[in-house]
Fold:
Amino acid sequence: MVNARRSFLKTSVGFGAAAVLGWPRLPSLLGGVLALHPTLSADDGFAGGKRLEILPFLGRDLRLEVLYNHSRDRRFRQDLSLLTPETLITPVERFYVRSGVADEIDYEHPWKIRVDGLVRESLDIPIEALTSIARPMGVHLMECNGSGLGGLISAARWTGIPARQVLAKAKFLSQATHVKITGFMQWSKRNPESGELLASWVFSFKQLDDAGAFFATGMNGKPLTKDHGYPIRLVMPGWYGCSCIKWVNSIRLLDDSARSTVQMLSYADLRKDRSARFKLAKDLPPKNIDVQAMPVRVEKWRLRGKIVYRVVGIIWGGRQTTDKLAIRFNRDEEYVPVESCRQKTHQTWTLWSHTWRPARTGRYRIRLKVLDLAVPTRRLDRGYYECRVRVKEV
Ligand SMILES: Nc1nc2c(c(=O)[nH]1)N[C@H]1C(S)=C(S)[C@@H](COP(=O)(O)O)O[C@H]1N2
Ligand SMILES: [Mo]
Structure:
């Protein structure tokens, strides 16, 4: 399947090709799905049981992989229902793509990053000067902020150069406090489905430092693919993907009067009337990811003659790990602690699982919560990641 996708990307065929090439549609391959879902671990209490099926989520299909695929633009989502402890680092060909490489990008001429603005002298950094000093930057998750795009989330082992080390190549003036990072973004013809063109973002030096920002040149030990920003992109650990500018070709040093870009404002979840207060980048709150959690699949098992369900999910985001994740299966139920949730890091996602013995058949709404008032969970509290399933047998 992975290979199919790889050659598929390489040939970059146009709209409708997924169907033509017989792209594996998992929902129609139930047997295959079961085979692809190894248990979380051998001694997890479900040993000796038989997994019968994966319940489909009502109204939200996390298994859909190709959201659209035009010759000029594409959007893919990693099939989250397949996550296992072994696949928590997303193979590059399955890493979500929010918008594919623009068709007018110029890979013929050597890539350079222009550094200008509040610098003593503008300069061009040739890409080789950066790839040659790139080093491992660790595993970091990336999630798209876009509303309605729930599930555009993946994690990779990145290679790159700390943002500060790149900036240090220029001699900047003392007023410089911010930096505007811009990436190539120009299509010969816009695809309306792709929405905003997210090509530039302004950060304060402090934001770059606090996040541990880096310019990535590689994922999982290989150079970036074109769709993920080849030859160089920004990664802002802990922030939404919208600030992780791809195809970076310009770095401009600015002072405190630096203006918010269109992309920053449109992704700030601001009502129109409030955006006037956020004209300046320094007034915009950072786009960091709160603790989030959601189920990725609900498994139905036969265990010692009884039907038992197991919810497998992910937890990610936040500023530190938490062990206070709780779950409930309907509005009138209390939250109960998630059975197994051992988060070792907040830099990437962690799988959890929870045994579920529903009392009756019917529809359930699965919600998660962090039982710690000190931990902000704005999206979780809004029910953003709620999942619904229908239980037909208990
Ligand atoms: N130049 C540029 N950078 C960009 C974007 C873009 O459209 N153009 N999209 C952003 C958004 S919204 C996200 S979520 C991430 C997605 O990165 P990925 O496609 O490699 O997963 O890239 C960000 N960087
Ligand atoms: Mo995004």
